[in-house]
User: What shape does this take?
Amino acid sequence: MRAARMIVAVDGPAAAGKGTLARRLAAHLGLPYLDTGLLYRATGRLVLDAGADPADPAAAEAAARRLRAADLSRTDLRGPAQDDAASKVAAVPGVRAALLEFQRRFGEERGAVLDGRDIGTVVFPQATVKLFVTASAEARARRRHAERGGQGPLAEVAAEMAARDARDAGRDVAPLAPAPDAVLLDTTALDAEAAFRAALGIIAAKVKLSA
Ligand code: CDP
Assistant: This one.
């Protein structure tokens, strides 16, 4: 498959399987991979570390502007508080503006697979292929609960996730939404292997059509 400088956008709601899928696609296609959620997670983390409020636009934008590559490999970017902080800073226009150039530069160098919420709509509206990966709210809550080792009530994970998806989809700037030319991939009934195969089929069809 012709992968040189190809941009594959993988967007969708929380715990839909974007990360696992995007990482595998990148390895298979020989493309760099960027988990753009890490940029928002690390920004939220810096705000929490400073004892500030992630919903405070000034504090959030200042954190995004002082983000360094090393912040993305911190091991304390996941968990309920981090999910919440990431989605609060992500609703701040100044944060999104500060993180946009890094994402574009990353993809423009050698092509890339990027996963997030606005890759196909804002970051790379001209992406070669756009996948919108989703799954039922129940399946996604079960997956996130399992990722956390089954700790705590499932209903709590489901409620947190619903609140975050509503915030991500309802914000004014770069809301979570499929691009008009995105291909929907529902992974509710698919395991990681089946989702990978389905995505490869979508990419192959698209690349062949535009070749
Ligand atoms: O892994 P999960 O799907 O739960 O979340 P993530 O992809 O790591 O993203 C964490 C949060 O960052 C999301 O809830 C969004 O608020 C925000 N985000 C965004 O706004 N735009 C992106 N391109 C990626 C993430």
